[in-house]
TrEMBL record:
Organism of this sequence: Parageobacillus caldoxylosilyticus NBRC 107762
Name of the protein in question: DUF881 domain-containing protein
Segments traversing the membrane: none
Pfam families on file: DUF881
Residue stretches in coiled coil: 46-94
GO MF annotations in UniProt: RNA binding
Record key words, sorted: Coiled coil, RNA-binding
Domain of life assignment: Bacteria
Similarity comment text for this entry: Belongs to the UPF0749 family.
């Protein structure tokens, strides 16, 4: 009678142990599965983040290239504007220089004054014309000053231009219709050293004028101011 009872006890103990093993196996499997699920999700997130980072890096490289291109375009535009501004500045200077040459603008600068006077002694009235200043004498001085680099010239304060004319009218000369009597003061703006040297060269204009009984005086001026020939109105 005791033997069956012992068998039941043993069988119950075995079932208990087996149940504990099943429970442990279930819990372990469940935990491992949970771990794998967490690991898979983390890996998926990391992969997504990595892909996003790669995409962002690509976009950054693309934007950087575009930025470099835009900077090059801006540099080219700045250079073009600088060249254009320089060209406009040069044109403005050339225009001002041309206005100065034609007498449309007021000018100021260093230069010289050449005074041509009639001879102080005239032997006889019959030969008086041989001892006074004529328009050709004035022309000679003006021509020499121009080819020597004079920027602006005036006769007795009257500005002359490329269209000016000078004629002799008895004891006076006419400059663009305005009469002037001797002495004739020819003012020229330019390098004084060059202008004086050009006039005083041996056998040059000064010697020729002296041979024609003309009194010549040359003065260096630190500043000469010449007004325009006529006012220029611009909008």
């Amino acid at each position: 009678m005791k033997k069956p009872k012992n068998n039941r006890v043993i069988l119950s103990f075995i079932c208990f142990i087996f149940g504990m093993m099943l429970a442990f196996s279930y819990q372990y499997t469940k935990k491992e599965a949970a771990k794998r699920n967490v690991t898979d999700r983390q890996w998926q997130k990391e992969y997504e983040y990595r892909q996003q980072l790669i995409q962002i890096q690509k976009e950054n490289r693309k934007l950087k290239n575009e930025l470099v291109q835009k900077q090059n375009e801006v540099t080219e535009m700045e250079n073009a504007l600088a060249n254009q501004q320089k060209a406009h500045t040069n044109l403005a200077k050339q225009a001002e220089k041309l206005r100065m040459y034609v007498g449309e603008s007021k000018v100021k600068g260093k230069g010289i004054e050449v005074t041509l006077s009639d001879a102080s002694y005239i032997p006889s009235e019959q030969s008086a014309t041989d001892y006074i200043v004529h328009e050709q004498h004035v022309f000679k001085v003006i021509h020499e000053l121009l080819i020597s680099g004079a920027e602006a010239i005036a006769i007795n304060g009257q500005r002359i231009s490329h269209r000016s004319y000078i004629v002799c009218n008895g004891p006076v000369i006419e400059v663009d219709g305005t009469q002037h009597a001797a002495p004739f003061i020819i003012s020229a703006i330019g390098n004084p050293d060059v202008l004086i040297s050009a006039l005083n060269i041996a056998g040059g204009i000064t010697d020729q004028l002296v041979q024609d009984n003309i009194t010549v005086k040359i003065d260096r001026k630190e500043e000469i101011v010449l007004d325009p020939i006529f006012p220029v109105h611009r909008p």
